[in-house]
């Protein structure tokens, strides 16, 4: 990478503003998956071990510039403290006198965690005033928040205009692994795109068609394509205004010789929930009052076969509503195929796909579990990541 990293700078005695991505799932005030916190530990330990005064900053959820009590970072501070086996001084303010006093009283190797940076409206606007407030707290900026690197915010980009800015170990590792995979991808190269964020991901498909040999579509995303093919999708997830785009992408795939895989059968339900009635139907027979919540057995077999014959597979987004057992078969099937594909380099693109892979016990069989969903997709698309662009060149 042509950007400076934490290994290129002296940190002893310095106040280091370290942006991390502690945007973790929470339930009843507890962290339910600490993977992102664990992923930041090496950088934090390197900093504390070298005698830096560490100021950690993260967002949690999307509070949109207001204080939302459930989105405070208190539970995150507790979990981090357990993982590090040392005290983490959590502040109630994002910037200003309280954090300043906490930082002033830090010993070398001590840690302060600021409150959720998205409680400040200036964060997502990349407000210059807020970026300066952050910079005033520190001598050096370390960005280790790969999961938020696709965001140009005050604590991921703006701050770098004021103080020296370098990448952390996690950021470096993510960019290195994904960069190597993308530079000259081993072929056949397959991307599997699923999940529910149709609006976010439909644009990604366009760019991926320039890069991959096989594109597999599953999850809620699939039904806009199914409808575009001329089939009825009942009550399944659908973006009516993206139908033309879906048609264009299918034509582009054909033009480019990219094999475009869509479900040929699905598990449909008469309700969204554990107690729904379900049945497997061919894709052209989704009943009007039913909703497709998973890919079907024939589709699973085909997708498994494609994975088996690939050399590089990147997976973002579950194949169905995996949180409910009845609709988890597609996601488990694909995860299993990736786990079994020993000669295939497998990359899991963060978010719910990573959660699913963890849940079903395949995590240690994957070559790279990225901490960023949106960030890894934008990187793979070839887009610039503002959180990386902002760092100092070597
Ligand atoms: N057929 C479907 N209908 C509705 N929701 C779905 C369907 N398939 C998957 N989902 C949901 O998609 C969600 C994940 O979507 P998304 O956030 O786009 O994935 P990721 O976090 O991996 O990027 C999961 O909660 C899952 O239940
Ligand atoms: O969870 C995240 O994104 P992801 O679900 O795409 O991995 C990051 O923390 C970024 O959060 P955001 O999409 O609210 O900016």
Topology overview:
Layout: E1 15-19, E2 26-27, E3 30-31, H1 35-49, E4 53-57, H2 74-84, E5 89-90, H3 97-104, E6 111-113, H4 121-124, H5 128-136, E7 140-143, E8 165-167, H6 169-183, E9 189-193, H7 198-208, E10 214-217, H8 222-228, H9 243-256, E11 259-261, E12 265-269, E13 278-282, E14 291-295, H10 297-308, E15 312-316, H11 329-340, E16 345-349, H12 351-359, E17 368-370, H13 374-381, H14 386-389
The chain binds adenosine-5'-diphosphate and 1,3-bisphosphoglyceric acid.
Adenosine-5'-diphosphate binds at residues 195-197, 219-220, 237, 292-293, 316-318, 320-321, 323, 351-353, 373.
Subcellular location: Cytoplasm
Keywords: ATP-binding, Cytoplasm, Glycolysis, Kinase, Nucleotide-binding, Phosphoprotein, Transferase
Subunit structure: Monomer.
Give an overview of the whole structure:
By secondary structure, the chain is α/β, with parallel strands linked by helices. It folds into 2 domains: 15-170, Rossmann fold (3-Layer(aba) Sandwich), CATH 3.40.50.1260; 185-381, 3-Layer(aba) Sandwich (Rossmann fold). The chain has 14 helices and 17 strands. It has helices at 35-49, 74-84, 97-104, 121-124, 128-136, 169-183, 198-208, 222-228, 243-256, 297-308, 329-340, 351-359, 374-381, 386-389, and strands at residues 15-19, 26-27, 30-31, 53-57, 89-90, 111-113, 140-143, 165-167, 189-193, 214-217, 259-261, 265-269, 278-282, 291-295, 312-316, 345-349, 368-370. The chain has a 6-stranded parallel beta sheet, with helices on both faces. Strands 11-10-9-15-16-17 form a 6-stranded parallel beta sheet, sandwiched between helices. Strands 13-12-14 form a 3-stranded antiparallel beta sheet. β9 (189-193), α7 and β10 (214-217) form a beta-alpha-beta unit. The radius of gyration is 22 Å and the shape is elongated. It binds adenosine-5'-diphosphate and 1,3-bisphosphoglyceric acid. The site of 1,3-bisphosphoglyceric acid has 11 residues, from loops. Residues 195-197, 219-220, 237, 292-293, 316-318, 320-321, 323, 351-353, 373 line the site of adenosine-5'-diphosphate. It catalyses: (2R)-3-phosphoglycerate + ATP = (2R)-3-phospho-glyceroyl phosphate + ADP. Substrate binds at residues 21-23, 36, 59-62, 118, 151.
């Amino acid at each position: 990478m042509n950007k400076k990293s934490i290994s290129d700078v002296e940190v002893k005695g310095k106040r280091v503003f370290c942006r991390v991505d502690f945007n973790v799932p929470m339930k009843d005030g507890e962290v339910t998956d600490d993977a992102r916190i664990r992923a930041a530990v090496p950088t934090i330990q390197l900093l504390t071990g070298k005698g830096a005064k560490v100021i950690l900053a993260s967002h949690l959820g999307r509070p949109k510039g207001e204080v939302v009590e459930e989105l405070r970072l208190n539970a995150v501070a507790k979990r981090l403290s357990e993982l590090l086996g040392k005290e983490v001084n959590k502040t109630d303010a994002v910037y200003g006198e309280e954090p300043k006093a906490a930082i002033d009283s830090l010993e070398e190797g001590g840690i302060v965690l600021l409150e959720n940076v998205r409680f400040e409206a200036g964060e997502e606007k990349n407000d210059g005033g807020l970026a300066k407030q952050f910079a005033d707290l520190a001598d050096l900026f370390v960005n280790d928040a790969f999961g938020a690197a696709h965001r140009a915010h005050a604590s991921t980009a703006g701050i770098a205009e004021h103080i020296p800015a370098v990448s952390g170990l996690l950021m470096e590792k993510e960019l290195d692994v994904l960069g190597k995979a993308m530079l000259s991808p081993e072929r056949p190269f397959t991307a599997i795109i699923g999940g529910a964020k149709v609006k976010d991901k439909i644009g990604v498909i366009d760019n991926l068609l320039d890069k991959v040999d096989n594109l597999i579509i599953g999850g809620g995303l699939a039904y806009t394509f199914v409808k575009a093919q001329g089939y009825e999708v009942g009550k399944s997830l659908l973006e009516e205004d993206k139908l033309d785009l879906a048609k264009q992408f299918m034509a582009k795939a054909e033009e480019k010789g990219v094999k475009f895989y869509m479900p040929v059968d699905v598990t449909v339900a008469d309700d969204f929930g554990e107690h729904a009635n379900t049945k497997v139907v061919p894709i052209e027979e989704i009943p009007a009052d039913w909703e497709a919540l998973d890919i079907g057995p024939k589709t699973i077999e085909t997708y498994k076969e494609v994975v088996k014959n690939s050399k590089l597979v990147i997976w973002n987004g579950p194949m169905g509503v995996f949180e409910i057992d009845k609709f988890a078969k597609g996601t488990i099937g694909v995860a299993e195929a990736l786990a079994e594909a020993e000669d295939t380099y497998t990359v899991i693109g963060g978010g719910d796909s990573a959660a699913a892979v963890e849940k079903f016990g395949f995590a240690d069989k994957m070559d790279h579990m990225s901490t960023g969903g949106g960030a890894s997709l934008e990187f793979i698309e070839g887009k610039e990541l503002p959180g990386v662009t902002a760092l100092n060149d070597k």
